[in-house]
Amino acid sequence: MVYVADNALIIQSDRSVLLEVHSPRAEAAREAIAPFAELVKSPEHIHTYQISPLSIWNARAAGMHVADMIAALREHAKYPMPDAVAQEIEALGSRYGLTVIEREGDCLLLKMADQPLAELLSRNESVAKFLGDRRSALVFEVNAGDRGVLKQALLGAGYPAEDLAGYVEGDALSIELRSVSQSGQPFSLRDYQKEAAEVFYQAGSVRGGSGVIVLPCGAGKTMVGMAAIAAVQENTLVLTSSLTSVRQWRRELLDKTTLPPEAIAEYSGETKQTGPITLATYQILSYHDHKTGDFPHFQLFSARSWGLIIYDEVHLLPAPIFRITAELQARRRLGLTATLIREDGKEGDVFALIGPKRYDVPWRELEGRGFIAAAECTEIRVPQDLDRQMEYALAEKRQQFRIAAENPRKAEVVMSLLQQQAEHRILIIGEYLDQLKHLAELTNLPIVTGKTSQRDRDQLYEQFRAGKVAGLILSRVGNFALDLPDADVLIQVSGKYGSRQEEAQRLGRVLRPKADGRSAQFFTLVSLRTCEEDFARHRQLFLAEQGYSYHIQVLDS
Fold first, then answer.
1. From CA 378, how far away is CA 361, in angstroms rounded?
2. Could you tell me which residues are beta bridge partners of residue 357?
3. Three-state secondary structure call for residue 366
């Protein structure tokens, strides 16, 4: 057995890869495997990566050769790589591109690499129903409207298609990024933002134009989206998670591009306009008539000749939007997200319908470069009084989580933290409205919930940015796309069970870099000796896996 002490990787037969962080060659190894291995967890000393079919196909879609993946592993392996791992990478990697979708005039063609594969897939029930006339032994006609669902079926069959059918041209749009923003500040894309947009667009070739960019909260995903719009120079539809996010996109576009106000339209519950740039929410598009089952707002997708559709917070993409996206494969599609984790496990649908992951930068790398704030995470375990413990013990299991989450003693801890962090900009966030309303009364801080009008929300957010209010209390509306860059303390009083996705989003609320370089504080309050502890461990594990220091403080009874 050949042992190389300075190498950083330990490759295991289950296709997991351990990276020794303190190895002399750790950084080189990390860069070598990042394109084809997914980071699973990154605590202090050993980082774990997983090589999966999807991670291999993402790398192949980005142009990486199978031989280069295997060579990278062998070059950095501390012990010899198991033969089975190399064989599996070879087998999976070679499948990408065995099916290719191309355009011939107005017709789409699915081309197979060889006749056995053509026979296999033409007899696969999921694939065969989307195949049209057989042109030859290896070529099938495909209805253009079935382009997306065919790609889903091929992915499910284990033979992901390389889609080279290209895109229709959208209506032209003249847009440039400013070098000095409207607010008078110098503006330029950060190197990774520019690179992400270039990797997505690929100079307009058919190999670019679809895919997902993964960047941490606070790293400027909106800037990547604007750079993509400037590259495409065509009418663009931006879909995002909330009306707050719509307004933030509008603010950034007006501030940092040459677009006039009349070029940017909003399609929401409040107004339904379209323009060269149209900003809409998933909620309005997902609305359907319960009597007919129709989605009346899907007409937005054909309201203009879109050259680009941007899916902000693509990990939140609801099922109805997946359905319509399957029909939009002739439009360029860009997904933006801080995490490809989907609680519904539909990462494969993102790959098939939006496109492969094109670019990814780990949280800690950007933190090290000062582009996002360092964060310290603390879990405070709060005891319940005796009566509350008895109520919890006697409750039905489905009620126990809420009883624990709304532990009244958490309010005491919140008040104590507000005193300790008095000079900081504080967000308090939780799941249950009664709990949040009680905290608002105790603290005299403004509260923002789903029932708060958009006008009032915008005013409160602006007051927070201007320093006129020291803190805000937020319901789950604070989970997504909230631009409060000065917030540096977040107190989480309750959450949605063990959602890793929610943990990532809430942490992201305080990760914008601070002018004075101070770190962010993330406090989670958990009721002692309850099921809330168990869910908190799941959320805690996610933060530890991302490499954040995590402290547990147990309060006296």
1. 25
2. 212
3. helix
**The CA-based dihedral angle spanning residues 527, 528, 532, 535, taken in that order and rounded to the nearest 10 degrees:** 130
- Angle at 98 (CA atoms; ends 57, 131), nearest 5 degrees: 110
Helix, coil or strand: residue 506: helix
What are the DSSP calls for 90-122, one per residue?
Answer: HHHHHHTTSEEEEEETTEEEEEESSHHHHHHHH
Q: Which residues pair with 18 in a beta bridge?
A: 10, 48
CA distance 314 to 325: 12
Please give the model's pTM, rounded to 2 decimal places.
0.83
User: How many Å apart are CA 132 and CA 532, to the nearest integer?
Assistant: 53
Torsion of the alpha carbons at 390, 393, 399 and 401, rounded to the nearest 10: 100
- C-alpha 472/C-alpha 477 separation (Å) is 12
Which pLDDT band holds residue 369 (cuts at 50, 70, 90)? confident
Q: What is the pLDDT of residues 239-256, one digit of tens each?
A: 998 888 899 999 999 999
Alpha-carbon gap, residue 46 to 173, rounded angstroms? 48
The per-residue pLDDT for 364 is 72
Q: Are 95 and 156 in contact (CB under 8 A)?
A: no
Question: How many angstroms separate the CA atoms of 252 and 177, rounded?
Answer: 11
Residues belonging to the chain: 557
Structure tokens at 451: 């029932």
**32-83 tens-digit pLDDT:** 998 999 888 777 789 999 999 999 999 999 889 999 999 999 999 999 999 9
Backbone phi and psi for residue 458, each to the nearest 5 degrees, phi listed first: -60, -40
Report the pLDDT averaged over residues 187-207.
96
Structure tokens that stand for 550 in this block: 């995590």
